[in-house]
């Protein structure tokens, strides 16, 4: 395994696309409410890297459940083949922005995924 070439970042999908976003990857299982596909500016919608429907519903964006959510989501990521897709993409692209729809900019699946990916070497 090589070094991670791509630099990962996170951003709300409702924020306008920027030149330095690089490859924009939506990491939510559901399409963001009120976001027309033509305005999203995504390069890839990687639904399969999102938390399971069960875990997403249990978390329900409640900050007091974030620690448990993070731990359980990391366990899901350990056996999720979509993680390899992101790592391969990072090996080929200088910048990858993980897009999410949650209102909370700190307690969301994209932040957990970002921390998880930064701890892994490229595929």
Automatic annotation (TrEMBL):
| InterPro entries linked to this entry | YeaO-like
- The superkingdom listed in its UniProt entry is Bacteria
Name of one Pfam family that matches: DUF488-N3i
- PANTHER family for this protein: CYTOPLASMIC PROTEIN, CYTOPLASMIC PROTEIN-RELATED
- Protein name in the entry: DUF488 family protein
Tell me what organism the protein belongs to. Arthrobacter liuii
């Amino acid at each position: 395994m090589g070094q991670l070439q791509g630099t990962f970042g996170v951003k709300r999908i409702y924020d306008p696309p920027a030149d330095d976003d690089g490859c924009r990857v939506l990491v939510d299982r559901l399409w963001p409410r009120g976001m027309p596909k033509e305005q999203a500016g995504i390069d890839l919608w990687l639904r399969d890297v999102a938390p399971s429907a069960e875990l997403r519903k249990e978390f329900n964006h409640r900050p007091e459940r974030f620690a448990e959510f993070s731990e359980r989501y990391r366990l899901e990521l350990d056996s999720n083949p979509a993680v390899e897709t992101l790592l391969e993409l990072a090996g080929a692209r200088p910048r990858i922005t993980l897009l999410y729809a949650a209102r909370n900019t700190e307690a969301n699946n994209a932040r957990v995924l970002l921390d998880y990916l930064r701890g892994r070497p490229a595929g």
